[in-house]
Amino acid sequence: MQDFFKWFSQNRQLTKPWLMLGKGPSFSLVDQYDTDGYHIISLNHAVRHHKTLLAHMIDFDVPVDCAEAIDRNAQYLLMPWIPHVHNVPTHQNLEELLQEHETLRKLYHEKRILWYNLVTGPVKKEDSPVVPVSFFSAEAVLNLLAMAGVKTVRSLGIDGGNTYSSNFKDITETKLLANGHQTFDHQFKHIARTIMEKKIDYAPLNVESPIKVYVGTGQEQLIPTKVLEYSIRKNTSMSVEVFPLYQSNIKMPMPKDPANKPRTPFSFQRFIIPQLNGFRGKAIYVDSDMQVFTDLRKLWDKPFEGGDILAAYEAEGTGRRPQFSVMLMDCQALAWDINHIVAQLDRGELDYAKLMYEMRVAKNIRPVIEREWNSLEYYEEGKTNLLHYTDMNKQPWLYRNNAFGHVWVRELAEAMDKGFITRREIAEHIRWGNLRPSLLYQLKHKHFEVTDLPAEAKRLDAFFVPPHLRNAQTPKSTLLLHKLLVKAALAYYRF
Question: Per its UniProt record, what InterPro entries does this chain match (predicted)?
Fold first, then answer.
């Protein structure tokens, strides 16, 4: 038997894209795709129905069930050095277990078996890497491929939920969720972590990818934008591209009438998204003052059903205007030109309210996105999908009065600990006046609550003026004192 990683390193052509095949409902779509451009790795019983380079299994019961299919359809069987038996790690190694089955012994003698160290095994072989897994084999396989150097992976049959494809109806009663979990959804958070940490391009083959997220923002909001991006990436089970719209090279014209001018520097940015997306495919628009808590694919997968925009609305009775701060956009249906839109404002065909609060430039708006995807200043763990810090005078990177500020500060600290946001970036934006200085105290002491900070922390904000309140009338003495205090604080907290 050969170590998977050594085998992989000796076959460099294996770095081309891979296709993972599982037993979920989308497995039934495999014949609709040209799979010649992929190396194929099957999970468990999927080897029964498709030719594959590798047949991966963690539980030894599976190769016993599928021995003839493995011999017929797979070039290699790939298993942990210490497999599971009935979903529990055994004390026998793979070499010992193989001797108990004739067909598997045949694979062994033909050198068609590869092994690796799985984290659950009580004994590790040699100095081969240890592959993490938490719930299901798809996690192990994606980690295996990423650790071996694969950059692109697609899948069919890795669907979540609690059903198999009809191809596997004969084993549904005996094998479905036999490890005791109630749903395959548990695997997605760990898949998201692998995508982010290993920087691997992963998506289901039957889903448009990557998820394209455009953020309405400016340079001053870089840190909130990066916290938002981190929250998206750590929760999303397929690859994502996040693009801050201020980085586009498209010039934004200004309306002549002051009443029609954008209320923020990025209010009109959403109207250039179809152009940036090449007027094809889908895109998600969000504001920078947001934080995501669930898999963005749940939003990405929503059907348009004739709409060109799916929008999230706040529930009636809140006193707030309709929100178009979270949108799923059909870019092919939205032939927007920002110059034409501003010209309509100048000619009186549109006004600011019709454009921003009614989105009159769209033909068919479907307000079907649940309010949990645009939760305005409210957070409930396990229920809120996206928290929108929409009140500028309570945004937790600028103020200490937000009841849910600890949720954002905790995310900032985690993003910094993971290296997604650097200490230097935080220091620069505090120095430039884009973040309140008391964040230095919170990050150093891991004190996430914002409403109960000690006097030491509050003093750091003594001369801080948030960017949206800073203007030519701001006393120069205040700005100078803030600069001096920040310089001392950065040195004291070693940022």
Answer: Glyco_trans_8 (IPR002495), Nucleotide-diphossugar_trans (IPR029044)
Name the CATH superfamily, with its identifier, for domain 211-387.
Spore Coat Polysaccharide Biosynthesis Protein SpsA; Chain A (3.90.550.10)
Global pTM?
Answer: 0.94
Measured in whole angstroms, how far is the alpha carbon of residue 30 from the centre of its chain?
Answer: 25
Cα distances (angstroms) measured from residue 103 to each of 28, 44, 86, 107? 28, 17, 20, 7
Q: How far is it, in rounded angstroms, from Cα 330 to Cα 146?
A: 32
Does residue 210 have a cis bond before it (omega within 30 degrees)?
Answer: yes
Q: Check residue 33 and report its DSSP letter.
A: S
- In DSSP notation, 164-231 reads --GGGGGGHHHHTTTTS-S-TTHHHHHHHHHHHHHT-EEEETTS-SSEEEEEE--GGGHHHHHHHHHH
Looking at the chain, the whole-number percentage of residues with pLDDT higher than 70 is 96
Domain locations in the chain as residue ranges: 2-204, 211-387, 391-493
* Rounded-to-integer distance, Cα 222 and Cα 254, Å: 23
180 pLDDT exceeds 80? Answer: no
- Which residue shows structure tokens 């900032």? 412
